Amino acid sequence: MRVDVDAEQGIEVWRTYRGNEWGNQGERMGGSGDRKEEEVRIEVKTQGEKGYYEGRGGFSPLTLLKNPMILIAIFGMGMMVGMPYLLDSMDPETRKEFEESQKSGPLAGVSAATNPMQNFDMAAWMAGSGKSEKTVSTGAEERGGGKARRRG
User: Fold this and answer.
1) Where are the alpha helices (DSSP H) in the chain?
2) Nearest 5°: phi and psi at 15?
């Protein structure tokens, strides 16, 4: 059904079908344009039920494998577990060359060097005290006593 409501012509009802172009009005069933007392009976049938909501999908562990972060973690764990077995299965000459290249590589000295942030004491820094100690003269020195030390 197509119902046209216009201020000049009134209400007109046309029988049309799904998929027709807008200009193809189809058979006129009636309206208020020609006769004022014309009655139009419309029979309406439902086409189907609308599905507004989508059902929640179930959990599948295989969907985790679509996540790149999970794939990287699995690869890293596999390398961590499998690398010792690969090194054990290497022949002695290749293993010796590999160890020498590890010693002369760009990361060889990194593990031996100490990190200055490794010995950082956050609690002492927040309290305002540092590692250097400063001597402060107190009244005990003037009376013949020793030196008092204060952090800060």
Assistant:
1) 68-88, 92-103, 122-127, 139-142
2) -95, 115
Residue 37 has pLDDT above 70, yes or no: no
> How many other β-carbons are positioned within 10 Å of the β-carbon of residue 145?
10
Radius of gyration of the chain (CA): 44
Residue at 84: amino acid letter: P
**Does pLDDT of 40 surpass 70?**
no
3-state SS class at 70: helix
Q: How many residues does the chain have?
A: 152
Of the candidates 27, 24, 33, the residue with the CA atom closest to the CA atom of residue 14: 27
User: Letter for the amino acid at 135?
Assistant: T
DSSP letter at 4? E
